Amino acid sequence: MADGERLICASEALVDGGLGVRFELRRAGESLPAFVVRHRGQIHAYVNECRHQDSELDWNPGEFFDSAKLYLICATHGAVYQPEDGLCIEGPCRGARLMPVSVHEHDGRVFLSE
Predict the structure, then answer these.
(1) What are residue 87's DSSP bridge partners?
(2) Which residues are CB-contacts of 89 (< 8 A; sequence separation ≥ 6)?
(3) Is 47 helix (H, G, I), strand (E, B) or coil?
């Protein structure tokens, strides 16, 4: 592991359109819930907070995708987000974006870039 990296999970833990992996992110001295998912072969990570109101997105821990496994959806407000860029395309916060988290994947593992 290089300086400024923190292990999140093994790459195999992220199946395309499957469960996401939740982790804690430290920013400006506070801890924020975050998650990483795989969509169309790529990993994407965001702060786990709906842009409509302060609530976590997942239905149950790690369940971020809609039933078709195409979009991220807020369990509380029904906001629908594109996994690749976090843009809300439907719901009460249309046009807003999830807060991205910098992650990368190498050697069979997913890392937070701190």
Answers:
(1) 97
(2) 71, 80, 81, 82
(3) strand
Q: Taking Cα atoms as reference points, which of 13, 22, 17 lies closest to residue 72? A: 17
Other CB atoms within 10 Å distance of the CB of residue 104:
12
Q: Where are the domains of the chain?
A: 5-113
The CA-to-CA distance between both ends of the chain, in Å, stands at: 12
Contact status, residue 52 vs residue 93, Cβ threshold 8 Å? yes
- Digits of tens for pLDDT over the chain (114 positions)? 556 689 999 999 999 999 999 999 988 888 999 999 999 999 999 999 998 888 899 989 999 999 999 999 999 989 999 999 999 999 999 999 999 999 999 999 999 987
CATH of domain 5-113: 2.102.10.10
**Is the pTM for the entire model greater than 0.85?**
yes
